[in-house]
Amino acid sequence: MLGLLIGLIVLVALVVVYYINRIIRLGNRVDNAWSQIDVQLKKRVDLVPNLVEAVKGYMKHEKDVISKVTKARERMLGAKTDEEKVEANNQITGALKTIFALAENYPKLRANENFMMLQEELAGVENKIAYSRQFYNDSILTYNNLVSTFPGMMFAGMLRKEKKKHLEITEAERKSVKVKF
Amino acid sequence: MERLNVQDEISKNKLKSIGLMVVVFLSLIFIVYVIAQFCDPAFAYLFVTIALIFSLVFTVVSYYNSDKIVLATVNARPATRKEHRYLVNVVEELSLAAGIPIPRIYVIDSQEINAFATGRDPEHGVICVTIGMMKILNRSELEGVIAHEMSHIKNFDIRFATLVAVLVGMIVIIADIFGRSLWYGGGRSRDRENKGGVLLIVGLIFAILAPIFVKLVQLAISRKREYLADSSGGFLTRYPEGLASALEKIKKYNHEGLKVSRAVAPLFIANPFSNKKVSVALSTHPDIDDRIKKLRNM
Fold first, then answer.
1. A-B contacts at Cβ under 8 angstroms
2. Structure pTM?
Protein backbone atom coordinates (compact mmCIF):
# COMPACT_ATOMS: atom_id res chain seq x y z
CA MET A 1 0.00 0.00 0.00
CA LEU A 2 2.77 2.36 1.02
CA GLY A 3 4.79 1.30 -2.02
CA LEU A 4 1.86 2.10 -4.27
CA LEU A 5 1.47 5.51 -2.70
CA ILE A 6 5.17 6.32 -3.11
CA GLY A 7 5.05 5.10 -6.70
CA LEU A 8 2.09 7.35 -7.40
CA ILE A 9 3.79 10.40 -5.86
CA VAL A 10 6.95 9.76 -7.91
CA LEU A 11 4.87 9.42 -11.07
CA VAL A 12 3.03 12.68 -10.44
CA ALA A 13 6.32 14.45 -9.67
CA LEU A 14 7.80 13.19 -12.93
CA VAL A 15 4.83 14.44 -14.94
CA VAL A 16 5.00 17.85 -13.24
CA VAL A 17 8.73 18.18 -13.90
CA TYR A 18 8.25 17.10 -17.52
CA TYR A 19 5.56 19.68 -18.25
CA ILE A 20 7.22 22.54 -16.41
CA ASN A 21 10.51 21.92 -18.21
CA ARG A 22 8.74 21.64 -21.52
CA ILE A 23 6.88 24.91 -21.07
CA ILE A 24 10.07 26.71 -20.09
CA ARG A 25 12.09 25.16 -22.88
CA LEU A 26 9.54 26.00 -25.56
CA GLY A 27 9.19 29.50 -24.13
CA ASN A 28 12.95 29.94 -24.45
CA ARG A 29 12.80 28.69 -28.01
CA VAL A 30 10.24 31.37 -28.84
CA ASP A 31 12.44 34.09 -27.27
CA ASN A 32 15.47 32.79 -29.11
CA ALA A 33 13.55 32.73 -32.40
CA TRP A 34 12.55 36.35 -31.81
CA SER A 35 16.15 37.41 -31.30
CA GLN A 36 17.11 35.59 -34.50
CA ILE A 37 14.73 37.84 -36.46
CA ASP A 38 16.35 40.83 -34.79
CA VAL A 39 19.84 39.64 -35.73
CA GLN A 40 18.86 39.35 -39.38
CA LEU A 41 17.13 42.75 -39.43
CA LYS A 42 20.28 44.33 -38.01
CA LYS A 43 22.40 42.58 -40.62
CA ARG A 44 20.25 44.07 -43.35
CA VAL A 45 20.49 47.54 -41.82
CA ASP A 46 24.28 47.15 -41.82
CA LEU A 47 24.30 46.23 -45.50
CA VAL A 48 22.27 49.26 -46.61
CA PRO A 49 25.14 51.84 -46.54
CA ASN A 50 27.32 49.46 -48.58
CA LEU A 51 24.60 49.14 -51.16
CA VAL A 52 24.06 52.90 -51.30
CA GLU A 53 27.80 53.36 -51.78
CA ALA A 54 27.87 50.77 -54.56
CA VAL A 55 24.92 52.12 -56.58
CA LYS A 56 25.46 55.86 -56.02
CA GLY A 57 27.92 56.26 -58.88
CA TYR A 58 25.76 54.42 -61.38
CA MET A 59 22.18 55.43 -60.55
CA LYS A 60 22.55 59.17 -60.79
CA HIS A 61 18.92 59.76 -61.75
CA GLU A 62 17.48 57.76 -58.88
CA LYS A 63 18.48 60.01 -55.96
CA ASP A 64 14.97 59.85 -54.50
CA VAL A 65 14.98 56.12 -54.00
CA ILE A 66 18.48 56.14 -52.58
CA SER A 67 17.69 58.82 -50.04
CA LYS A 68 14.49 56.97 -49.17
CA VAL A 69 16.38 53.84 -48.16
CA THR A 70 18.93 55.87 -46.20
CA LYS A 71 16.15 57.67 -44.34
CA ALA A 72 14.33 54.47 -43.60
CA ARG A 73 17.54 53.06 -42.19
CA GLU A 74 17.99 56.05 -39.90
CA ARG A 75 14.41 55.72 -38.74
CA MET A 76 15.03 52.06 -37.99
CA LEU A 77 18.14 52.85 -35.95
CA GLY A 78 16.30 55.55 -34.02
CA ALA A 79 13.13 53.51 -33.47
CA LYS A 80 12.05 53.20 -29.86
CA THR A 81 8.88 51.12 -30.00
CA ASP A 82 8.31 47.82 -31.77
CA GLU A 83 5.68 49.44 -34.01
CA GLU A 84 8.16 52.07 -35.22
CA LYS A 85 10.67 49.31 -35.91
CA VAL A 86 8.20 47.28 -37.94
CA GLU A 87 7.18 50.37 -39.88
CA ALA A 88 10.79 51.38 -40.66
CA ASN A 89 11.63 47.84 -41.68
CA ASN A 90 8.73 47.73 -44.08
CA GLN A 91 10.03 50.94 -45.63
CA ILE A 92 13.51 49.48 -46.02
CA THR A 93 12.03 46.39 -47.63
CA GLY A 94 10.05 48.48 -50.10
CA ALA A 95 12.94 50.82 -50.95
CA LEU A 96 15.39 47.95 -51.48
CA LYS A 97 12.91 46.29 -53.79
CA THR A 98 12.67 49.46 -55.88
CA ILE A 99 16.45 49.84 -56.02
CA PHE A 100 16.93 46.30 -57.29
CA ALA A 101 14.11 46.70 -59.79
CA LEU A 102 15.62 49.93 -61.11
CA ALA A 103 19.09 48.41 -61.22
CA GLU A 104 17.80 46.26 -64.07
CA ASN A 105 18.10 49.39 -66.25
CA TYR A 106 21.82 49.77 -65.53
CA PRO A 107 23.74 46.95 -67.22
CA LYS A 108 27.10 48.28 -66.02
CA LEU A 109 25.91 48.25 -62.42
CA ARG A 110 24.51 44.76 -62.78
CA ALA A 111 27.89 43.53 -63.99
CA ASN A 112 29.70 45.17 -61.07
CA GLU A 113 31.13 42.46 -58.83
CA ASN A 114 30.61 44.37 -55.62
CA PHE A 115 26.99 45.01 -56.52
CA MET A 116 26.42 41.37 -57.42
CA MET A 117 27.87 40.32 -54.08
CA LEU A 118 25.64 42.77 -52.22
CA GLN A 119 22.61 41.65 -54.16
CA GLU A 120 23.27 38.05 -53.19
CA GLU A 121 23.88 39.00 -49.55
CA LEU A 122 20.70 41.05 -49.38
CA ALA A 123 18.66 38.34 -51.08
CA GLY A 124 20.08 35.94 -48.49
CA VAL A 125 19.24 38.24 -45.61
CA GLU A 126 15.69 38.80 -46.90
CA ASN A 127 15.16 35.04 -47.01
CA LYS A 128 16.72 34.65 -43.57
CA ILE A 129 14.31 37.23 -42.20
CA ALA A 130 11.39 35.41 -43.78
CA TYR A 131 12.54 32.00 -42.54
CA SER A 132 13.30 33.17 -39.02
CA ARG A 133 9.81 34.68 -38.87
CA GLN A 134 8.38 31.40 -40.09
CA PHE A 135 10.30 29.51 -37.39
CA TYR A 136 9.17 32.06 -34.79
CA ASN A 137 5.54 31.49 -35.73
CA ASP A 138 6.00 27.71 -35.77
CA SER A 139 7.58 27.85 -32.32
CA ILE A 140 4.72 29.98 -31.06
CA LEU A 141 2.21 27.49 -32.44
CA THR A 142 3.79 24.59 -30.53
CA TYR A 143 4.09 26.74 -27.42
CA ASN A 144 0.49 27.94 -27.57
CA ASN A 145 -0.79 24.43 -28.19
CA LEU A 146 1.05 23.28 -25.07
CA VAL A 147 -0.12 26.04 -22.74
CA SER A 148 -3.73 26.03 -23.95
CA THR A 149 -4.51 22.32 -23.89
CA PHE A 150 -4.91 19.91 -20.99
CA PRO A 151 -2.80 19.15 -18.97
CA GLY A 152 -0.30 21.79 -20.08
CA MET A 153 -2.71 24.61 -19.26
CA MET A 154 -2.71 23.64 -15.54
CA PHE A 155 1.04 24.07 -15.29
CA ALA A 156 1.00 27.15 -17.49
CA GLY A 157 -1.45 28.66 -15.03
CA MET A 158 0.87 27.79 -12.14
CA LEU A 159 3.81 29.43 -13.93
CA ARG A 160 1.65 32.38 -15.03
CA LYS A 161 2.53 31.72 -18.67
CA GLU A 162 0.11 32.88 -21.31
CA LYS A 163 -0.36 32.39 -25.02
CA LYS A 164 1.99 34.41 -27.21
CA LYS A 165 1.09 36.42 -30.28
CA HIS A 166 1.94 35.48 -33.85
CA LEU A 167 3.67 37.76 -36.32
CA GLU A 168 1.18 38.47 -39.03
CA ILE A 169 3.19 40.01 -41.82
CA THR A 170 5.08 36.91 -42.93
CA GLU A 171 3.25 35.56 -45.95
CA ALA A 172 2.54 38.80 -47.78
CA GLU A 173 6.06 40.07 -47.18
CA ARG A 174 7.75 36.85 -48.12
CA LYS A 175 6.18 37.01 -51.56
CA SER A 176 6.93 40.66 -52.22
CA VAL A 177 10.53 40.89 -51.07
CA LYS A 178 12.11 38.00 -52.93
CA VAL A 179 14.78 39.58 -55.07
CA LYS A 180 14.88 37.58 -58.27
CA PHE A 181 17.67 37.90 -60.76
CA MET B 1 0.06 15.17 -36.05
CA GLU B 2 3.06 16.12 -38.14
CA ARG B 3 5.06 16.84 -34.98
CA LEU B 4 4.17 13.54 -33.39
CA ASN B 5 5.38 11.69 -36.47
CA VAL B 6 8.68 13.51 -36.49
CA GLN B 7 9.23 12.86 -32.78
CA ASP B 8 8.49 9.18 -33.37
CA GLU B 9 10.93 9.11 -36.24
CA ILE B 10 13.68 10.69 -34.11
CA SER B 11 13.36 8.19 -31.26
CA LYS B 12 13.17 5.34 -33.76
CA ASN B 13 16.38 6.52 -35.45
CA LYS B 14 18.19 6.84 -32.11
CA LEU B 15 17.10 3.36 -31.03
CA LYS B 16 18.07 1.82 -34.36
CA SER B 17 21.50 3.46 -34.16
CA ILE B 18 22.18 1.97 -30.72
CA GLY B 19 20.84 -1.41 -31.91
CA LEU B 20 23.12 -1.34 -34.94
CA MET B 21 26.20 -0.54 -32.87
CA VAL B 22 25.44 -3.37 -30.44
CA VAL B 23 24.83 -5.86 -33.27
CA VAL B 24 28.06 -4.95 -35.08
CA PHE B 25 30.01 -5.04 -31.81
CA LEU B 26 28.69 -8.49 -30.87
CA SER B 27 29.01 -10.01 -34.34
CA LEU B 28 32.66 -8.96 -34.59
CA ILE B 29 33.38 -10.75 -31.32
CA PHE B 30 31.31 -13.75 -32.34
CA ILE B 31 33.13 -14.11 -35.67
CA VAL B 32 36.51 -13.94 -33.96
CA TYR B 33 35.36 -16.48 -31.37
CA VAL B 34 34.28 -18.93 -34.10
CA ILE B 35 37.55 -18.48 -35.98
CA ALA B 36 39.52 -18.97 -32.75
CA GLN B 37 37.62 -22.18 -31.97
CA PHE B 38 38.39 -23.34 -35.45
CA CYS B 39 42.12 -22.66 -35.26
CA ASP B 40 43.14 -23.31 -31.68
CA PRO B 41 40.59 -23.36 -28.85
CA ALA B 42 43.36 -22.86 -26.31
CA PHE B 43 43.81 -19.28 -27.38
CA ALA B 44 40.09 -18.54 -27.71
CA TYR B 45 40.03 -16.24 -24.67
CA LEU B 46 43.01 -14.27 -25.85
CA PHE B 47 41.50 -13.82 -29.29
CA VAL B 48 38.16 -12.78 -27.87
CA THR B 49 39.82 -10.24 -25.58
CA ILE B 50 41.64 -8.72 -28.52
CA ALA B 51 38.41 -8.76 -30.55
CA LEU B 52 36.60 -7.09 -27.67
CA ILE B 53 39.07 -4.22 -27.60
CA PHE B 54 39.13 -3.97 -31.38
CA SER B 55 35.34 -3.87 -31.84
CA LEU B 56 34.93 -1.44 -28.97
CA VAL B 57 37.45 0.90 -30.58
CA PHE B 58 35.89 0.34 -34.02
CA THR B 59 32.33 1.17 -32.94
CA VAL B 60 33.27 4.13 -30.75
CA VAL B 61 35.64 5.63 -33.33
CA SER B 62 33.01 5.09 -36.02
CA TYR B 63 30.36 6.82 -33.95
CA TYR B 64 32.45 9.95 -33.54
CA ASN B 65 34.15 9.97 -36.94
CA SER B 66 31.65 8.44 -39.35
CA ASP B 67 31.02 11.82 -40.97
CA LYS B 68 34.75 12.30 -41.63
CA ILE B 69 35.07 8.82 -43.11
CA VAL B 70 32.12 9.42 -45.43
CA LEU B 71 33.42 12.84 -46.49
CA ALA B 72 36.83 11.32 -47.23
CA THR B 73 35.39 8.53 -49.39
CA VAL B 74 33.52 11.02 -51.59
CA ASN B 75 36.50 13.41 -51.90
CA ALA B 76 34.65 16.38 -50.47
CA ARG B 77 36.30 19.67 -49.50
CA PRO B 78 34.98 22.39 -47.17
CA ALA B 79 33.01 25.21 -48.78
CA THR B 80 34.06 28.76 -48.06
CA ARG B 81 31.90 31.83 -47.77
CA LYS B 82 34.04 33.63 -50.32
CA GLU B 83 33.90 30.96 -53.00
CA HIS B 84 30.38 29.58 -52.41
CA ARG B 85 28.49 32.58 -51.04
CA TYR B 86 25.26 31.47 -52.69
CA LEU B 87 25.34 27.97 -51.17
CA VAL B 88 26.39 29.21 -47.73
CA ASN B 89 23.52 31.72 -47.70
CA VAL B 90 20.94 29.12 -48.66
CA VAL B 91 22.17 26.69 -45.99
CA GLU B 92 22.07 29.44 -43.35
CA GLU B 93 18.55 30.39 -44.42
CA LEU B 94 17.21 26.88 -44.03
CA SER B 95 18.94 26.22 -40.74
CA LEU B 96 17.04 29.26 -39.47
CA ALA B 97 13.83 27.80 -40.90
CA ALA B 98 14.48 24.44 -39.25
CA GLY B 99 15.72 25.98 -36.00
CA ILE B 100 18.93 23.94 -35.88
CA PRO B 101 22.59 25.06 -35.74
CA ILE B 102 24.22 25.84 -39.10
CA PRO B 103 25.69 22.58 -40.44
CA ARG B 104 29.23 22.43 -41.80
CA ILE B 105 29.17 22.73 -45.59
CA TYR B 106 31.22 20.66 -48.05
CA VAL B 107 31.40 20.52 -51.84
CA ILE B 108 32.25 17.76 -54.31
CA ASP B 109 33.97 18.79 -57.54
CA SER B 110 31.58 17.17 -59.98
CA GLN B 111 29.20 18.43 -62.63
CA GLU B 112 26.51 15.96 -61.50
CA ILE B 113 23.57 17.26 -59.43
CA ASN B 114 23.59 15.53 -56.07
CA ALA B 115 23.77 16.17 -52.34
CA PHE B 116 23.77 14.37 -49.01
CA ALA B 117 23.77 15.05 -45.29
CA THR B 118 25.82 13.30 -42.64
CA GLY B 119 26.96 13.72 -39.03
CA ARG B 120 25.79 12.24 -35.75
CA ASP B 121 23.27 14.84 -34.53
CA PRO B 122 22.00 18.31 -35.47
CA GLU B 123 24.87 19.89 -33.50
CA HIS B 124 27.36 18.04 -35.71
CA GLY B 125 25.47 18.14 -38.99
CA VAL B 126 27.19 18.23 -42.37
CA ILE B 127 25.69 19.10 -45.75
CA CYS B 128 27.60 18.19 -48.88
CA VAL B 129 26.68 19.42 -52.36
CA THR B 130 28.16 18.95 -55.85
CA ILE B 131 29.46 21.96 -57.77
CA GLY B 132 27.08 21.04 -60.60
CA MET B 133 24.12 21.46 -58.30
CA MET B 134 24.99 25.09 -57.56
CA LYS B 135 25.47 25.81 -61.26
CA ILE B 136 22.34 24.20 -62.67
CA LEU B 137 19.69 24.74 -59.99
CA ASN B 138 18.06 28.12 -59.35
CA ARG B 139 17.60 29.47 -55.86
CA SER B 140 14.24 27.94 -55.01
CA GLU B 141 15.36 24.56 -56.35
CA LEU B 142 18.55 24.68 -54.31
CA GLU B 143 16.48 25.69 -51.29
CA GLY B 144 14.27 22.66 -51.88
CA VAL B 145 17.24 20.27 -51.91
CA ILE B 146 18.89 21.84 -48.87
CA ALA B 147 15.54 21.73 -47.02
CA HIS B 148 15.36 18.00 -47.78
CA GLU B 149 18.86 17.52 -46.32
CA MET B 150 18.01 19.72 -43.35
CA SER B 151 15.08 17.40 -42.56
CA HIS B 152 17.43 14.40 -42.61
CA ILE B 153 19.58 16.21 -40.05
CA LYS B 154 16.64 17.22 -37.89
CA ASN B 155 15.14 13.71 -37.92
CA PHE B 156 18.43 12.06 -36.92
CA ASP B 157 18.29 10.11 -40.19
CA ILE B 158 21.91 11.11 -40.65
CA ARG B 159 23.05 9.30 -37.51
CA PHE B 160 21.58 5.96 -38.49
CA ALA B 161 22.33 6.17 -42.22
CA THR B 162 25.94 7.25 -41.65
CA LEU B 163 26.52 4.54 -39.05
CA VAL B 164 25.17 1.92 -41.44
CA ALA B 165 27.42 3.23 -44.20
CA VAL B 166 30.51 3.07 -41.99
CA LEU B 167 29.89 0.11 -39.65
CA VAL B 168 28.33 -2.26 -42.18
CA GLY B 169 29.81 -0.67 -45.26
CA MET B 170 33.44 -0.67 -44.12
CA ILE B 171 34.04 -3.89 -46.10
CA VAL B 172 32.46 -2.27 -49.16
CA ILE B 173 34.47 0.93 -48.74
CA ILE B 174 37.71 -1.04 -48.51
CA ALA B 175 36.70 -3.19 -51.50
CA ASP B 176 35.87 -0.09 -53.54
CA ILE B 177 39.17 1.59 -52.67
CA PHE B 178 40.95 -1.65 -53.54
CA GLY B 179 39.09 -1.95 -56.82
CA ARG B 180 40.02 1.56 -57.79
CA SER B 181 43.72 1.29 -56.84
CA LEU B 182 44.00 -2.00 -58.72
CA TRP B 183 42.86 -0.24 -61.87
CA TYR B 184 45.09 2.76 -61.48
CA GLY B 185 48.14 1.49 -59.61
CA GLY B 186 48.48 -2.02 -61.01
CA GLY B 187 51.95 -3.28 -62.05
CA ARG B 188 53.87 -0.18 -61.20
CA SER B 189 57.00 -1.98 -60.09
CA ARG B 190 58.26 -5.51 -60.47
CA ASP B 191 59.89 -5.67 -57.05
CA ARG B 192 56.54 -5.53 -55.38
CA GLU B 193 55.08 -8.41 -57.27
CA ASN B 194 54.94 -10.70 -54.26
CA LYS B 195 53.31 -8.10 -52.09
CA GLY B 196 50.97 -7.35 -54.97
CA GLY B 197 49.95 -11.02 -55.08
CA VAL B 198 48.92 -11.00 -51.42
CA LEU B 199 47.06 -7.73 -51.90
CA LEU B 200 45.30 -9.22 -54.89
CA ILE B 201 44.00 -12.13 -52.81
CA VAL B 202 42.88 -9.84 -50.00
CA GLY B 203 41.27 -7.61 -52.60
CA LEU B 204 39.50 -10.58 -54.11
CA ILE B 205 38.10 -11.69 -50.75
CA PHE B 206 36.80 -8.19 -50.14
CA ALA B 207 35.37 -8.05 -53.66
CA ILE B 208 33.45 -11.26 -53.03
CA LEU B 209 32.15 -10.09 -49.65
CA ALA B 210 31.28 -6.58 -50.84
CA PRO B 211 28.02 -7.33 -52.73
CA ILE B 212 26.64 -9.11 -49.66
CA PHE B 213 27.39 -6.08 -47.52
CA VAL B 214 26.00 -3.70 -50.14
CA LYS B 215 22.78 -5.66 -49.87
CA LEU B 216 22.91 -5.43 -46.06
CA VAL B 217 23.35 -1.65 -46.24
CA GLN B 218 20.38 -1.41 -48.61
CA LEU B 219 18.22 -3.58 -46.39
CA ALA B 220 19.01 -1.47 -43.34
CA ILE B 221 18.05 1.82 -44.94
CA SER B 222 14.43 2.26 -45.85
CA ARG B 223 13.18 4.23 -48.80
CA LYS B 224 10.40 5.65 -46.66
CA ARG B 225 12.81 8.13 -45.12
CA GLU B 226 13.34 9.79 -48.50
CA TYR B 227 9.63 10.44 -48.90
CA LEU B 228 9.48 11.72 -45.35
CA ALA B 229 12.41 14.10 -45.93
CA ASP B 230 10.77 15.26 -49.17
CA SER B 231 7.55 16.14 -47.43
CA SER B 232 9.11 17.78 -44.37
CA GLY B 233 11.52 19.61 -46.68
CA GLY B 234 8.56 20.90 -48.66
CA PHE B 235 6.93 21.97 -45.41
CA LEU B 236 10.10 23.82 -44.39
CA THR B 237 10.24 26.03 -47.51
CA ARG B 238 6.44 26.16 -47.83
CA TYR B 239 7.17 25.62 -51.53
CA PRO B 240 7.36 21.91 -52.50
CA GLU B 241 7.57 22.85 -56.18
CA GLY B 242 11.21 23.93 -55.66
CA LEU B 243 12.31 20.41 -54.74
CA ALA B 244 10.03 18.86 -57.37
CA SER B 245 11.62 20.86 -60.16
CA ALA B 246 15.11 20.16 -58.72
CA LEU B 247 14.36 16.43 -58.96
CA GLU B 248 13.26 16.92 -62.53
CA LYS B 249 16.59 18.55 -63.36
CA ILE B 250 18.44 15.72 -61.61
CA LYS B 251 16.59 13.26 -63.83
CA LYS B 252 17.36 15.28 -66.93
CA TYR B 253 21.02 16.22 -66.40
CA ASN B 254 22.58 13.34 -64.42
CA HIS B 255 24.25 10.88 -66.78
CA GLU B 256 27.87 10.47 -65.72
CA GLY B 257 27.43 9.19 -62.19
CA LEU B 258 29.64 10.00 -59.21
CA LYS B 259 32.78 8.08 -58.28
CA VAL B 260 31.77 7.12 -54.76
CA SER B 261 31.73 3.93 -52.73
CA ARG B 262 28.60 1.82 -52.96
CA ALA B 263 28.34 1.92 -49.15
CA VAL B 264 27.60 5.65 -49.08
CA ALA B 265 25.24 5.68 -52.08
CA PRO B 266 22.03 5.52 -50.00
CA LEU B 267 22.98 8.78 -48.28
CA PHE B 268 22.58 10.80 -51.47
CA ILE B 269 19.35 12.55 -52.44
CA ALA B 270 19.40 10.82 -55.83
CA ASN B 271 21.11 7.62 -56.90
CA PRO B 272 24.75 8.64 -57.52
CA PHE B 273 25.33 5.92 -60.13
CA SER B 274 24.32 6.35 -63.72
CA ASN B 275 21.19 4.36 -64.41
CA LYS B 276 22.58 1.77 -66.74
CA LYS B 277 25.70 0.95 -64.72
CA VAL B 278 24.42 -0.39 -61.42
CA SER B 279 20.84 -1.54 -61.46
CA VAL B 280 21.03 -3.00 -57.93
CA ALA B 281 21.83 0.35 -56.43
CA LEU B 282 18.63 1.73 -57.90
CA SER B 283 16.67 -0.03 -55.20
CA THR B 284 18.15 2.25 -52.53
CA HIS B 285 16.31 5.21 -53.98
CA PRO B 286 12.58 5.52 -54.59
CA ASP B 287 11.38 6.23 -58.10
CA ILE B 288 12.14 9.85 -58.92
CA ASP B 289 8.90 10.36 -60.89
CA ASP B 290 6.90 9.11 -57.96
CA ARG B 291 8.66 11.54 -55.64
CA ILE B 292 7.94 14.45 -57.99
CA LYS B 293 4.29 13.42 -58.18
CA LYS B 294 3.98 13.22 -54.38
CA LEU B 295 5.57 16.65 -53.95
CA ARG B 296 3.22 18.24 -56.47
CA ASN B 297 0.21 16.76 -54.66
CA MET B 298 1.23 18.23 -51.31
1. 40
2. 0.85
